[in-house]
Design a protein that fits this description.
The chain has 268 residues and is α/β, with parallel strands linked by helices. The chain has one domain: 3-Layer(aba) Sandwich (Rossmann fold). The protein contains twelve helices and seven strands.
């Protein structure tokens, strides 16, 4: 059986806005820990600095930066992501990562957790982060490595295709044109150098999530922007059947989730 609804989102921003609540409930718990690891990689203390959380989403990196003592302003192209739990979050503005609404060198630093890897040319985002950061301030960025994978990705997408889902065009473009450009240490180092950053430290890291149940792994994937817009349209019974089918496709021996990521920690 297939399902239809308002239609495929026209852009990544539309998809992220439509799936913001699902993202916070599913992927958000994974991204929160990854954001904490990125913040911990800062080469200088963040306490007291005014930090821009670029591509802030539902605010996981903002929370990690505030916990480290930073003052935060957030930007994202998806308005719907910025309004989730709005009362508990720092000031925010809808803005493109490649054209931030700040004067040169006005900020104490920038953090872009899994944002620049969505750009066709991540060097442009890194260069913009350098532009708005005062000399000696940190520019922190992260991306997924080439070997980052888990069987739940394929299982969930197969189950979704069986009921009529198709990946939005923006997701196919991301996979083809952007996702790999920061996905190795040499590529990330080259992008940071081309952006004019210095004191560049790039590291590959593996972050395990042994506490996640199979059900929580499925919710992670169903809450991603390229799937949540479709899942949100399903009636409860159909959603339950989708989850059950994904679990069936995964089989009995499901490995723990280990995210393979690349960190860029540099100075403007």
């Amino acid at each position: 059986m297939s399902f239809s609804g308002p239609g495929t989102p026209a852009s990544a921003a539309d998809a992220y806005s439509a799936g913001a609540v699902a993202w916070a409930a599913g992927p958000g718990r994974i991204y929160a820990r990854l954001a904490e690891l990125l913040i911990a990689a800062s080469p200088v203390p963040l306490a007291g600095r005014l930090l821009c959380d670029v591509g802030a989403g539902t605010g996981v990196a903002s929370r990690a930066a505030r916990a480290a003592g930073a003052r935060v302003v957030a930007t994202d192209l998806a308005h719907g992501m910025l309004v989730v739990q709005r009362s508990d979050r720092p000031p925010a503005v809808v803005a493109d990562a490649t054209s931030l609404p700040f004067r040169d060198h006005v900020l104490g630093g920038v953090v872009a957790a899994y944002c620049y890897n969505h750009l066709d040319d991540p060097t442009v985002g890194l260069r913009e982060g350098r532009r708005v950061t005062a000399p000696g301030g940190p520019v922190l960025a992260s991306a997924y490595a080439d070997d980052d994978t888990h069987p739940v990705k394929d299982a969930s997408e197969q189950a979704l295709r069986e009921i009529g889902w198709a990946a939005p065009g923006f997701h196919a473009d991301f996979k083809q044109n952007a996702s790999s450009k920061l996905a190795t240490v040499p590529r990330a180092e080259a992008a940071a150098r081309a952006a004019g950053l210095h004191a560049i430290a790039v590291a590959a890291m593996r972050a395990p999530f042994p506490e996640l149940t199979v059900a929580e792994l499925v919710e992670w994937r169903l809450g991603m922007a390229h799937t949540a817009w479709f899942v949100n349209q399903l009636p409860p019974g159909a959603r339950d059947a989708l989850v059950a089918r994904t679990v069936e496709l995964l089989g009995a021996d499901v490995p723990i989730l280990v995210r393979s990521v690349i960190h860029i920690a540099a100075l403007a």
